[in-house]
Automatic annotation (TrEMBL):
GO BP annotation list: DNA recombination; DNA repair; telomere maintenance
GO MF annotations in UniProt: 5'-3' DNA helicase activity; ATP binding; ATP hydrolysis activity
PANTHER family listed in its UniProt record: ATP-DEPENDENT DNA HELICASE, PTHR10492
Family from the record: Belongs to the helicase family.
UniProt catalytic activity: ATP + H2O = ADP + phosphate + H(+)
Keyword Transmembrane belongs to the record: no
Keywords: ATP-binding, DNA damage, DNA recombination, DNA repair, Helicase, Hydrolase, Nucleotide-binding
Obligatory cofactor(s): Mg(2+)
Domain spans labelled DNA helicase Pif1-like DEAD-box helicase: 170-220
Protein name (Swiss-Prot/TrEMBL): ATP-dependent DNA helicase
EC numbers on record: 5.6.2.3
Length: 220
């Protein structure tokens, strides 16, 4: 399509350039030139399937469309339908963790969805990186499937604040000095090394619990 449109092109970069802008892919260059067809037919087909299909089936349909149909604006398509694709993710996570009230943030749900789409693309012989879909919000390895970490991240902030206050009230003077020194270092994002020494039963574990509880209440 670009070969028929761009006059005098002498390289692939010439084909991807339009109005002084070098686009990352040929599809983006086509989109900028208005050469791509309207995606309404794919939206309509997806909306019809969404009336009866499960979220898992919709994810498979979405991947199939991107691989084998001429979807012009993949990113817009994703943004339009991603909540339908991810409709079962929070429910499944609550079931896995046995926490009926577990609440995922939107970016976490999207990250889980991207993980699942990545697997589906691979099963179909494709690669999600070859498509104009959003990246995960975090660069670290996904927590999906790691029940221990998910459970550690699930707690009530108000309950944690109350527990933290109760623990601090029970610290003696030396423990409180150590508590403030360590906490202030952590909150200021400054490097630090602390060694807490004492005989068994002198409250080292209790101090540690007070520090961790306070920091968790601060979402650290």
């Amino acid at each position: 399509m670009l070969l028929l449109t761009v006059k005098g092109a002498q390289s692939y970069e010439d084909l991807r350039k339009y109005n002084g802008v070098l686009y990352r892919t040929f599809k983006e260059a086509c989109k900028a030139r208005g050469l791509l067809n309207d995606d309404q037919e794919w939206y309509t087909a997806f909306d019809e399937a969404a009336r009866w299909a499960t979220s898992n089936q919709l994810r498979q349909l979405f991947v199939t469309m991107l691989l084998f149909c001429e979807v012009g604006d993949e990113h817009s398509f994703f943004e339009k339908v991603w909540k339908l694709l991810a409709d079962d993710i929070q429910y499944n996570m609550r079931k896995t963790l046995n926490h009926p009230a577990y609440q995922m943030e939107e970016h976490q749900i999207k990250d889980h969805l991207i993980d699942q789409l990545t697997v589906l693309f691979k099963k179909c012989g494709g690669n999600i990186k070859n498509h104009d879909l959003p990246s995960k919000s975090v660069s670290s390895e996904t927590l999906h499937g790691n029940r221990f970490i998910e459970e550690e991240l699930f707690y009530n902030i108000n309950d944690m604040l109350t527990q933290s206050h109760e623990l601090q009230c029970k610290l003696n003077t030396q423990q409180m000095n150590a508590f403030h020194s360590i906490v202030q270092t952590v909150l200021s994002d400054m490097p630090g090394f602390f060694f807490v020494s004492g005989y068994g039963g002198t409250g080292k574990t209790f101090l540690w619990k007070a520090i961790i509880t306070y920091l968790r209440a601060q979402k650290k």
